[in-house]
Write a structure and sequence with these properties.
Layout lengths: L1 H41 L11 H4 L3 H6 L2 H5 L4 H9 L5 E5 L4 H37 L10 H28 L5 E7 L3 E7 L6 E7 L3 E3 L21 E6 L8 E5 L3 E2 L5 H7 L4 H13 L7 H13 L4 H10 L3
Antiparallel strand pairs: 1-2, 1-8, 2-3, 3-4, 5-6, 6-7
Organism: Lachancea quebecensis
Protein name: LAQU0S09e03818g1_1
Keywords: Membrane, Transmembrane, Transmembrane helix
């Protein structure tokens, strides 16, 4: 009798298991049919280019964001970029740079080398001056300018001046990396925020000031027209920003040219901190883009001309790549 009860319980569990399995299979098949129906409805027919329209591209904004910012802003005039930046209602970062670890480690190492050299030179010069003084004090001086005390004072003064050179270089090696700018943000209503590293701890220190207080060197231009951002320069790898309203030790900021500029355009700094007009910046960009390099060969000029002609038929292909790019 007990055996029959166990068999009944077993049959109930088996029946329930088969029922749940059938329900899950029905749900999976229904989901597959729905996905196939949606895919067939979204797939364009042969010769239908409606998916290349801007309305179709807006359906997948994450695919559009994968395109580089250089392509999205390369054709915009500089006046439009600057107007878009000024119209911001919240702080917008216009420059960012990551200081390499080699700079931090190398600055402390270089400072230690100069410090050891300065201390050792001071010790050697002081010891030599005292030895010469003890020898000269035993003999009477032949004239007043050869008095032992006068000669000792002159030697010590010269040694002190020569010792200050390596000690000053040691201090500069520690001080200079703390003036490297890591970020610059545009604050609405004519202000900016400059971020740098602290002197000893290396923590980020930010300060907000008016744009009129920060000035770029008038002889140095940020935008050179060379490189992907137009900021590459063979003569210098950085430029200075000066705050005339701060003391001498907190006045200069070092901005590396290899940092990332807003909209991939270095003319933003020339307009905000250099006092240059928008028309002059656009005119210089047009002149540099139109003037062919003098060092190019005829073959290179032919290749450049072919690339220019091929760009006319490249818009449809670029839009297709944006839409059909896999996730």
């Amino acid at each position: 009798m007990a055996r029959c009860v166990y068999h009944d319980v077993y049959d109930v569990y088996i029946t329930r298991f088969h029922f749940q399995r059938c329900v899950l299979e029905n749900l999976r098949s229904t989901k597959k049919r729905i996905c196939r129906t949606r895919f067939a409805a979204d797939t364009p027919a042969a010769g239908d280019f409606s998916m290349l329209r801007p309305t179709a591209i807006r359906v997948a904004p994450h695919m559009m964001w994968r395109a580089t910012r250089a392509h999205s802003t390369a054709g915009l005039p500089f006046s439009s970029k600057l107007a878009a930046l000024i119209a911001k209602t919240s702080p917008e970062q216009i420059y960012s740079y990551s200081v390499p670890r080699l700079v931090k480690f190398g600055s402390w190492t270089l400072s230690g080398v100069f410090l050891v050299y300065g201390v050792s030179f001071a010790d050697w010069s002081l010891t030599s001056s005292l030895e010469l003084y003890s020898e000269e004090a035993q003999q009477p001086p032949s004239s007043w300018w050869k008095h032992p005390k006068l000669l000792l004072a002159a030697r010590i003064a010269g040694s002190a001046l020569l010792t200050l050179i390596p000690l000053t270089l040691s201090s500069i090696a520690i001080y200079a990396p703390s003036r490297i700018v890591t970020a610059v943000s545009y604050v609405p209503h004519g202000a900016c925020e400059i971020t740098r590293g602290a002197l000893f701890s290396g923590k980020l220190v930010s300060r907000v000031t008016n744009l009129s207080n920060i000035a770029r060197n008038q002889k140095t231009k940020v935008y050179t027209g060379v490189g992907p951002q137009g900021t590459d320069d063979r003569a210098s790898f950085a430029f200075l920003l000066t705050d005339a309203h701060r003391p001498a030790w907190d006045r200069f900021y070092i901005v590396n040219r290899s940092g990332r500029f807003w909209a991939q355009d270095g003319r933003i700094f020339d307009a905000l901190f250099g006092g240059e007009s928008v028309r002059s910046l656009e005119r210089s960009n047009t002149a540099q883009a139109a003037a062919p390099p003098l060092t190019t060969s005829p073959v290179q000029r032919m290749i450049a001309a072919e690339k220019t002609r091929s760009k006319i038929h490249d818009h449809a292909g670029r839009a297709k790549n944006i839409v059909m790019r896999p996730k």
